[in-house]
């Protein structure tokens, strides 16, 4: 999902296009009601929309964001645990139902969804209030039970105590639910100095750490692909090899002859083979003979697309930024330097390929298990396809094996496909639609290809003018996420708003179109803007004979938080200390998703030109830190994910079809390429902000800058490969 | 045909070319073994066959008659227990999808090489992909598991 600075979806538009109209939903728990738990004799009591207390004294926090590795199951729960005065061993989490009214994301205009590193940022105030409100209800219930004044009740580690009497939250919950929640304006919050959980280090000896660890280590954790009710049929879909191709005709004789194949059905995206199990479905799909109509398909190769993009760059595009004299200042005294930065399509390639299970009863109901990143859109798609009422469709959000943006789509592609197949077989059995890895790599929704034409005029020992002209497909144009006619500046977020104090700045963008589908990819526009901005900055600094850190300090004087991470990373990396022969440093600093990150890469370059990133020192300022170890984990992972992409990842097209097929030719990083990572966190009392994405953007340019220091070359074509 | 899975004998009557992965997941409901690529390129489906790390996605179940197969659900060797304890202690997991395969690979590595060097850890783990890039912590956790084993 794009940075919230450039992303403002219209909820009305989303609902309209997804076929929901203005209808609301009525699913899930209702506040204050006592509901029986799914299993066993434990009674569950809701105290508000986000907190549920069990008679077994567990406290469950409803997550309106999906847990797909980024740690929300711990982070969001920590906020509630703190304000409700829990013992950590009580804490549990559960994904909330798909219900915009209760669980919409304020950062997305009230649409339910996970992305843009907004989970903590958008939940902080809300979950503090949820925890504090529940705490006061428990306090009142305890006061009544003990016959004392509420102010005499002490709440500590999941228990209420007064006058020598004590009751657990589990014992008090049913009474507490009958109490009117306090006015939000009257809620008192803990002072940060009294925090038990927020900002505290993981401590395995006290069982304080990620709430999803134990189940994932023991493999008890349940993902959508693990959900397999008796009699489930598995469907694989044959999609057009070229983007934009349509089925002209097909012969399913051989497919139907495969043992286990039950149905072959055509849907909007291709031809689905349905079978009793995966292996039969795969053999059935392999046996299909399909003739494709490519009249509207993309037929170019990547080289041609890059050439077309560069042709566009000869002319000015949509103006996004003008400081001083803007583009006119790129001509004049001194030296003008320029470079075209080329970025390929990238696949997200989450380890769990897309899948969901649809249990459809025609005219009655549908229950859908899915790793849903945007339950509102998914539900809307299911409602539209199946012709059911919103209240007849429930989305059960499961853990997801990664996403990196892939599960948040503009068109609910997975849900559309799965429900169309479920409908075509008339709901005769639970229907699992699966994507194979080949489907994942070859079926689009890529980080868009892009060319940044970077230009700078250097004069009087400084960058006098800066120009960034980009050609890139828009992710949001023509979708419900962007009002018609609006400019999609998320395409160049982090680039056009370059923070350096340069007198003359120009940034403009062209949005060419293609039948290749593109999507938000972890850190979105920042994946390429940060690379072009930060690497070209070093190219300019080198020409000027300036130290990359010192020059950044000079031009970032008005940005204390950027300066803070820059200085911390430089200090911890020993920027001013010499390195052994053959080792080189590069630094990059970038602001994205309301957080600030600087990274220093230490790279060794061998005589034959091969290089290796040995060490990365990262400094992050993400405001108040909820879980420092999860911040570190997200920086480590973001650095790995970003490094993987700049070293070896590319989806290239030949005559409109992807060349790559699976992990043996889509070059994701393995352990041997992973550097040692050290993460340092800037102490802050600013509101908490995102960590899922901001670790990604600086690593590419930090590595490129180290290579520049080693060879003097500009690294403008990605991926970099293995040689400097 | 009889297969031994996590110490329990199972009668396999399925298709000859059907990979073990789908027999484990769909028939036996042992869903801890994950599908990642289907072409033995990522290691998410790693199981142990007579102690050797093996890709269940490309190994026909029917080729394993008489073999002892261990999945994450049955990983109770000293190395396996140490690995799981270390993974939890260091909070290695993020999305978690690849981690069963990672832990089985680590258990096999530590059984063969109880005190691995940094390079041996990388070599032993390099064929298992983690898209969350938890590699940094996996390295630490393999070393920690080695300590736990004593």
Could you explain how this protein is built, in words?
The complex is a heterodimer of chains A (724) and B (150). Chain A has 724 residues and is α+β, with helices and mostly antiparallel strands. Chain A is built from 17 helices and 28 strands. In chain A, the strands form 7 sheets. Chain A has a 7-stranded mixed beta sheet with strand order 11-12-9-19-16-17-18. The radius of gyration of chain A is 27 Å and the shape is globular. Chain B has 2 domains: 2-74, Ubiquitin-like (UB roll); 78-149, [2Fe-2S]-binding domain (DNA polymerase, domain 1, Orthogonal Bundle), CATH 1.10.150.120. Chain B is 38% helix and 13% strand. Chain B has helices at 20-27, 78-89, 99-112, 118-125, 135-149; strands at residues 2-5, 8-11, 46-49, 52-55, 68-70. In chain B, a hairpin with a 2-residue loop joins β1 (2-5) and β2. In chain B, α2 packs across α3 and α2 packs across α5 (135-149). The longest helix of chain B is centred in the last third of the chain and has 15 residues, at 135-149. The model of chain B has no long low-confidence stretch (mean pLDDT 97). The chains are: A alpha+beta (724), B alpha+beta (150). Chains A and B meet through α6, α8 and α16 of A and α1, α2, α3, α4 and α5 of B.
Supply the helix-strand structural class of chain A. Answer: alpha+beta
Terminal-residue CA separation of chain B: 40 Å
Rg measurement of chain A, Å: 27 Å
Instruction: Provide the CATH topology of the largest domain in chain A.
Output: Aldehyde Oxidoreductase, domain 4
Short description:
The complex is a heterodimer of chains A (724) and B (150). Chain A is of the alpha+beta class and 724 residues long. Chain A has three domains: 11-217, Aldehyde oxidase/xanthine dehydrogenase, molybdopterin binding domain (Aldehyde Oxidoreductase, domain 4, 2-Layer Sandwich); 225-295 and 354-434, Aldehyde oxidase/xanthine dehydrogenase, molybdopterin binding domain (Aldehyde Oxidoreductase, domain 4), CATH 3.30.365.10; 302-346 and 446-711, Aldehyde Oxidoreductase, domain 4 (2-Layer Sandwich).
